[in-house]
Every structure is written in structure tokens, then in C-alpha cells.
Amino acid sequence: MLKYQHIANELEKYIEEHSLQQREKLPSLETLMTQFEVSKSTITKSLDLLEKKGIVYQVRGSGIFVRRHKRKGYISFLSNQGYKKSLNDFQITSEVIELDVRKPSKEAALNLNMEPGDDVYYFKRLRYINGQTLCLEESYYNKSIITYLNNEIISESVFNYITEGLGLNIGFADTFFHVNKLTDEEAKYLRLKKGDPKLYVESVFHLTNGQPFDFSKLTYNYEQSQFFVQTNNHFL
Prior knowledge:
By secondary structure, the chain is an alpha+beta fold. The protein has helices at residues 3-17, 29-36, 40-52, 83-86, 106-112, 151-155, 158-165, 184-190, and strands spanning 56-59, 63-66, 75-76, 92-102, 120-129, 132-142, 170-181, 197-207, 212-221, 227-228. Strand 8 and strand 9 form a beta hairpin. The mean pLDDT is 88.
């Protein structure tokens, strides 16, 4: 993890541990530089990262303020940190249905920029929120990048393992949404009825160097799913 990312995590932890509320002010840029013993550019990158995540906002000449107005039970569509970050007040568990090493599907190879003969880790799992089905997930991980996965890792947080266990830096994601109806198989897994509404999401996750490593397809249970998006655009 890069220094500015570590500082951003520490500042986010500080906000949470001190239960700072909307519009409360953080220490000044100079104070943070002294506290973390880093340059102005490093602190600026940390704050920019927090601003993109919707945690703080900066007002020129006034300071750095807490922005986040979280609603309990909502999942961030723009976060690359996994569900446990958005839903830390809930019990998030997983049930691994399938895990193996295989050749990628044509779709997966295209999205991961891989050759058809390369290997991927493929898994299918159910995610639960407080014991209720949240979503069905199918994922393909480039095995040359994510060199090892097992049931224990998949039952917990794959992204935590990638950042902490493998020391890789997750960068950005491209995400595509479809609204449709559940197939018979999806309905059985999600404990719903065939033809019930579904939100189907495809995501391609990249490392900070731009290399794609994960192609995931998720089908959400409409009864359990709530989402939010925070933007940083300046509207005219």
C-alpha cells in the first residue's frame, strides 16, 4: 500500500472512531503534514482520495470537512472496498458453491485481456446479509495475478486478501448495470420466484497500473438490496 493510501485509511479510521459528523472540520493541511511527517503533495493525494470516496470535502480558504452522510444498510456502487466496508453494521457472510481453476470463457477472456488458453480462478458464491440472501456472484480472477484462492478466502473478503495478503493495489472498476427478471436457477439460489425483478451487475476491476484482474457478475436480491452513489461533480 502506498503512503498516501495508508494516510487516507488512517484519516477515515479517525473519522469513524471519533464519530465525526457532517461538516465537522479536520486538522489543517499543515497539521496533517507534521502529524504524518510527509510532504504537502502526499497529504493532498490522501485528501483527494478521500474526496473521491465521498468522505470529505475541501473548501478553499476554510479547510477540510467531513462530508459523508451514510444511510444504514446502503451499498456504495462506487466503492472498490467490498461489501463489508459499506455494511460494517451488518453480518455479511458467504457460501461458496463452486471453486476451480479453468480456462476463461470468451466473455471473461475479453474483459480480462487474456488469452483463451490462460488460467483463471472461477468461483460462484452466495452473499448473505444478516442471514438473508443478498446476491449471487460469479467471478473470474486472472490466475497469473491472483495466484492463489481457496474456500476460506472466498468465504471472507477476497479484496482484503488481495491488498493485505498479496500486497496488490486495487485501482478502478468499470461497472455495467442491467435490470431484468430472474431465471429459474437464479430464483432458486436467491430464494425468490422466477420472473421476480433483478439487478444484474457486471464489473471489471483493475489494479492501479490498469491491468484487469477480476471479472464479476452479480445478481442482486431486490428485497435486500439498497444502493447509493456519491458524486464529486461541480454543477453549473
